[in-house]
Design goal:
The complex is a heterodimer. Chain A is mainly β. Chain A has two helices and eleven strands. In chain B, about 35% of the residues are buried. In chain B, helix 2 runs parallel beside helix 3 and helix 2 packs parallel to helix 6. Classes of the chains: A mainly beta, B alpha/beta.
């Protein structure tokens, strides 16, 4: 029992998923209008309005080097994530999901860490496989610190 | 392939041969719409004119357009001139109201603070909220193919708006007038008051009465506040506006 966690697999590009504990996902939404944000990063798409908050929307695949050409349309979903390290500065942010995130109960034995594979970006904490599905575990501290630095003016 | 369509806040008299877009619009085109060279792009300007263009270059901070020409078939604004004076509702509901109003050709939305507003916005956030609603309106205009912008006015107390609006309509379940019997002066232009979640207060209803506004009912049921804007706009278009065949709507 204690070895199992409820996790969510978020498809971020074809054959690539993000693995997160379910407790971090506040809500999964359909695509909504993206408001522009005045910054230059390709992976920060803008902000979306959610429950009265304007939260940043990121494309994790682009952040970690993917050269996707598919435009962001209404077939996409958004996973709203709770910040865990810097909640006072940015309580929530959203990740682009290409498809519907999948809930999965994962036990220690289901997950295999791939230490032999090299990680090409600081935003990825580790690479794992769960029942033959590869997934990235994001480095939330890196992700949140960078998002805050890029989207919020210095005090 | 679907042609992307965006709003560009530019004054284009005679369109130049090329146009350079930078800042947040360039970021949006590059990273969200992910446009590529040679791809067509439609855009419209504050003057309400729609243009067709092609992308010539996509760079890190700017997008260049070429072959710019005004579209031969310009979108027409709605044939009725409707202003909605909307009691501010909770954030998602307000966004929904504005988005639907944009799609249905509403000309202006005036968000107002009323006695029963549940959404308490601190005064220092008025400008930010206004900018957000204008962005929602803009996105609705981009999506729906209209070239005239839905204007969202800054937040005001309802009492100040009542002082300036002469012929108003307010929606109230117990009112006596039906939309079909609206006096003729309202067939082309309307200023319509919609209450927030809690409806209008007795004081506000008295102010409407004092100004001799027309109370209108839209059925016997109490609608949620976000339902009202699409319902009233659809009904007005059916009776007096764009949902009528062209010959009839011109009369």
């Amino acid at each position: 029992m204690s070895n199992e966690i409820r996790a969510v697999l978020i498809p971020i590009e074809e054959d690539r998923k993000l693995l997160l504990p379910n407790a971090m996902v506040a809500e999964v939404l359909g695509m909504r209008s993206i408001n522009s944000l005045d910054q230059d990063e390709d992976w920060i798409l803008g902000t979306v309005s959610w429950r009265g908050w304007d939260i940043p929307l990121i494309d994790f695949a682009v952040l970690t080097g993917s050269n996707t050409e598919q435009n962001v349309d209404s077939s996409f979903n958004l996973a709203v994530l709770k910040s865990i390290n810097h909640a006072e500065n940015m309580p929530y942010f959203a990740v682009l999901s290409r498809g519907i995130p999948k809930l999965q109960l994962i036990s220690r034995g289901d997950m295999q860490l791939h230490e032999e594979k090299s990680i090409n970006h600081n935003a990825i904490a580790s690479l794992v496989s769960i029942q033959d599905e590869m997934a990235d575990i994001p480095n939330m501290n890196y992700l949140e610190s960078n998002l805050i630095a890029l989207t919020q003016p210095a005090a | 392939m679907r042609i992307s369509r965006i709003y560009l806040p530019l004054q284009l008299g005679q369109p130049d041969e090329t146009l350079v877009i930078d800042g947040s619009k360039a970021h949006y085109l590059r990273n969200v719409l992910r446009v590529k060279p040679q791809q067509p792009l439609n855009f419209f300007t504050p003057e309400g004119i729609e243009y067709e263009a092609k992308i010539s270059a996509v760079e890190k901070r700017q997008i260049t357009l070429f072959e710019i020409k005004a579209s031969s078939q310009q979108p027409r604004p709605a044939s009725i001139d409707t202003t909605l004076i909307q009691g501010i509702s909770s954030s998602d509901r307000m966004d929904y109201t504005i988005q639907k109003a944009a799609e249905l050709g509403c000309k202006k939305i005036m968000p107002v603070l009323t006695d029963f507003c549940s959404q308490k916005i601190p005064a220092h956030k008025f400008d930010k909220k206004h900018a957000h609603w204008q962005a929602v309106a803009l996105s609705g205009c981009e999506q729906s193919g209209r070239a005239d912008l839905l204007e969202v006015s800054p937040i005001m107390p309802i009492k100040e708006v009542i002082e300036t609006v002469v012929d108003g309509i307010y929606l109230e379940p117990g009112a006596q007038t039906f939309l079909q019997n609206l006096p003729a002066q309202f067939h082309r232009q309307q200023h319509i008051y919609i209450g927030p979640e809690g409806g209008f207060s007795p004081t506000e209803l008295e102010l409407f009465e004092a100004k001799k506004y027309t109370g209108v009912q839209i059925g016997q049921r109490v609608l949620r506040t976000e339902t009202v804007a699409p319902v009233i706009l659809s009904a007005l278009h059916t009776l007096y506006g764009d949902f009528m065949p062209p010959a009839e709507s011109k009369q």
